[in-house]
Design brief:
This protein is about 45% helix and about 15% strand. By secondary structure, it is α/β, with parallel strands linked by helices. Helix 3 links the parallel strand 5 and strand 6.
């Protein structure tokens, strides 16, 4: 019998969810058959194959910026459709493992039928929902809505056979809320080193055409892009030939565009909103001299290890980053140019410093590559494959015992 895996993700695939794509294609490389259930953009086919992965798109799409009630209804609609589609596929294909990616945590209950029939269920927690909600709404972890989210997190983890998360900090958070340590693993959301890898020194952009900064990823208030734009404007008073590219999508984009217009920065700040396949992203990033991670600090962002930072590291690129708990856990001052989160003046000074000190840029570029040496996707992929092999072996052995 073929070893079949199904992934469920409330996101678009493959563009928009690199972690799911990396894991799915890693399984295909190991001769697993992989199906993915995901959202569907207008005009996308309901079903297709992508690099060996069978993609099933459900008639739900994102409603970002429409409020929490609309988002909850969107989650529920996707849960119901995914449950129905997964049950039908499982009756025909008999999945050994179902891996459900969050948010939301309760999407894991779409795997009820496969679990009842013996499939192993993995909950892959990309973001911890209680902290995410508390930061978004300004509530404390002791507030009633957040306690409700903690309850659904515990129930979702209890339903799962195993839980994966993205950093040791989030793992410790989950364990502190009652998850057994042996039931939780870390698969870091590091860059794929087949796609993100250092470039020869002679191809690194020079300062001769100005100093070019880049941010790529989700465009939302908590990621501090207004702080970046204000610091950038101050830095240009000292260093006129600065340029900034902001690549991505998000509900905060109109406000940022208005801020750039109000500050008269339209000629030097470029918004790139085209959706790019993952393999095209390095060429965009490498047009710049340095990457920026300008996150605000709150109960959620303080525990995030940004994927964009790990992609800059894999490219051996100098980085200016907010000194949050998660970032300083994995990176030090020799690897990253740090500033205090939310401090416009400090961020401005970091930009000017890197512009003026090319040797500092080079030292940071060399040192940051140490992160990728210790936390490469090759290592993370092997740990992930080992976990899947273990679960599929347990599931297969269980069936053999029942058959005997």
């Amino acid at each position: 019998m073929a070893s079949r895996i199904c992934m469920v993700v409330h996101a678009y695939y493959p563009v928009g969810e690199p972690r799911v794509q990396r894991e799915a294609e890693a399984l295909v490389d190991r001769e697993y058959e992989v199906d993915v259930l995901c959202l569907r953009r207008p005009g996308e086919p309901a079903q297709e194959r992508s690099n060996g992965v069978a993609v099933y798109r459900l008639p739900v799409h994102r409603h970002k910026g429409k409020g929490l009630v609309i988002q909850l209804l969107e989650y529920i609609a996707f849960l119901l459709l995914a449950s129905w589609k997964l049950a039908r596929l499982h009756l025909r294909r008999h999945y050994l493992v179902v891996q459900v990616h969050t948010p939301p945590d309760f999407l894991v209950f779409s795997a009820c039928l496969p679990k009842l029939q013996g499939s192993k269920v993995i909950l892959d927690i990309h973001d911890v929902m209680p902290e995410f909600f508390a930061a978004r709404t300004g509530q404390t972890l002791n507030s009633l809505p957040v306690r409700i989210l903690q309850l659904q997190e515990r129930l979702s983890c209890a339903f799962s056979d195993h839980v994966i998360t993205v950093t040791d900090l989030w793992r410790e958070t989950l364990i502190s809320r009652g998850l057994p340590p042996e039931k939780c693993s870390v698969v870091m959301n590091v860059a794929d080193n087949q796609i993100f890898h250092p470039i020869p020194p002679e191809t690194v952009p020079s300062h001769s055409n100005g100093f070019h900064l880049i941010y790529h990823g989700n465009i939302t208030h908590r990621y501090g892009l207004d702080i970046l734009i204000k610091a950038f404007a101050l830095a240009r008073k000292t260093v006129p030939d600065l340029k900034l590219t902001i690549h991505g999508h998000g509900d905060y984009l109109p406000e940022l565009q208005q801020l750039v217009s109000e500050m008269g920065l339209q000629t030097c700040v470029h918004f790139s909103t085209q959706l790019l396949p993952l393999h095209e992203l390095p060429s965009l990033i490498l047009r710049a001299n340095a990457g920026i991670v300008p996150y605000r600090r709150d109960i959620f962002t303080d525990g995030i290890l940004p994927t964009k930072l790990m992609e800059y590291a894999a490219l051996s690129m100098p980085v200016i980053a907010a000194k949050t708990t998660a970032i300083k856990t994995y990176f030090d001052e020799n690897m990253v140019e740090f500033f205090e989160p939310g401090n416009v003046e400090e961020l401005k000074e970091c930009i000017v410093r890197l512009y003026r000190d090319r040797e500092r840029c080079q030292r940071l570029a060399r040192a940051i590559s140490r992160f990728s040496q210790h936390h490469s996707w090759n290592q993370q992929r092997q740990a992930y494959i080992n976990l899947i092999n273990q679960l599929t072996s347990e599931q297969t052995n269980g069936r053999d015992c029942e058959g005997s």
